[in-house]
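User: Please predict the structure of the protein below. I'd like the answer in C-alpha cell form so I can feed it into my own downstream comparison script.

Assistant: Understood. Taking the following sequence of 453 residues as input:
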Amino acid sequence: MNLRNGIRRDLTRSFQSIRVCSLPLPHDEINGDRQIAQGEVSPAFAAKVNNLRQFLATDLLARPHSFGNEAIVGGEVLSSLLTGVCGAVNGGLSNFFPLSLMQSIQQGRAETVLSESKKLFKQSVAKSVEGKPPLSKAATMKVIEVATSTAVGHFTEQARSLAESVTSKYWEKLEEVIEEGSKACYAAQERQVSDAINQVNRLRSESLQHVDKEAIKLMLSFPMEVDELMRRWQRLCAEGHGQLQRSVEKYMGGGILEDLQGELPTPHQFEDEVSDKLSTLIASNQSLLKSEQGNKILEEVLRESKDASEEAGKRVDAMQKGNERLLQELRESREAEERAQQATIDREASSQMWQAIGSLAIGALDAARSRVTGASGSSDEATDSGSVRVATPATATRRRPTRDVDVGPILSQDHAERKAREYIAEHPDLEWTGHWTTTSVGRASVIGVRDKA
C-alpha cells in the first residue's frame, strides 16, 4: 500500500494534473462463459466510460502538456508516455525518471518516422519506374531527387518536436537509405541501357540483312547505267537506315533513347557499313555490261537463288501447316479433356445430390423413430445412418404439441443441453422437452421444443 501511494505521489508531481478513474463492473454475469454484448452493460458502466472519454478528449486539447521538465507535443507522444508510465507502474518499478521515459519515447518516435520516410522514398521511386518505359540517366536522377525530397521533407516535419540528440543518429540512417536506393536506381538504369544497346545491335544486324536481300533483288535488274545503280543504292541505304530508326523507337521508347544516341549510326555511317556490297554490285554490273555471257551466268545464278528461296518458302509453308495441324490436335485434345472433366464434375454433383436426398430421408425416418422412442420411455437407440439419443422422456399433448427445430451440429449430451439453453434464451415462449436427435454425428441435429404451459 505504501509503495502504491508513493508511486501515485510521484505521478502527481510529474504531471500538471492527474485523475484516477475507477470503472464499475460492466455486468453481473461476467464469468467467462459467454460474451457480453455492448448493449447489455450496466448503465453505470456506460456513463462512467462516457465521462472518461469526454475528459480524455478535453484534456488532449490542452497545451502544453508536460512530464517533469519536458514538454509533450502531440497526442501520439502523450499516448506513448501514458503507456510507458503504466508499464513502469505495472512492472513494479518503484522509481522511474521522466527524462529517461521521454528519451525512450522520442527514440521510438524517431524510429517510426525513419521507417515512414524509407517507405515514402521507395514508393516515390516505384511510382516513377514500375510499369514505365526505361528512363534516361537524367530522368533517373530527377526521380531520385523527387524521392529524396519527399523522404527528407517528411522526416523533417515529423521529427521537428524531437530532440536533436535523438534525430541526428536517424538523419544519418536516412541518408544511408537514400544513398543505397539511389545506387540501386542507377544500377537498374545502367542495366536497362546495356540491354537496350544489345537490342540496338540486333536491330542493326536485321537492317543489314534487309539491305543484303534488297541488293540481291537489285541485281535482277542488271545490267543498268552506273548513275541509275547509284540512285537505287542510295535509296536502298536510306530505307535500311529508316527501318533501323523506326525499330529502335518502337522497341525502346521512353527517355532511354537519349542514352543511345552514340550507339545509333547516322545515315552516312550506315552507308559506310554496307559499302563493300556496293563495290560488289558495281563490279557485277560492269561485268554484265561487258559480256552478254556474264548476263546469262548471272541470270542462272539468280534463278538458282530464286529457286532455293522458293524451296525454302515451301519448307516454311509445310512447317507452318504442320504446326497448325499440331495446334488443332492439341485444341481437340484439350476440349476432350475439358468435356471429360465436366462429365466427372456432373457425376460428382449428381452423386452428392442423391446422397443429400438420402441423408434427408434417413433424417426424417430417424426423427419419426425418435418420437416413437420418446413416447415409450426408451433412452438410446442406434440406427444405420447415425444415432438417436433422448435426454429425458417427453410426451406431446393436445394443448402443447412438440416440434423439432434445427440447432446445428450436436456432438454430445452436454453440447445438446448448451444448444437447448441458447435456443430457449432466444425464444422465451418455448421450453425444451429434453429430447435431441442427430442422424449423423456433426451433420443434422434437432431438439424438441414446445410452448410453455
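That's the full C-alpha cell string. The CA atoms of residues 241 and 267 lie 6 Å apart.
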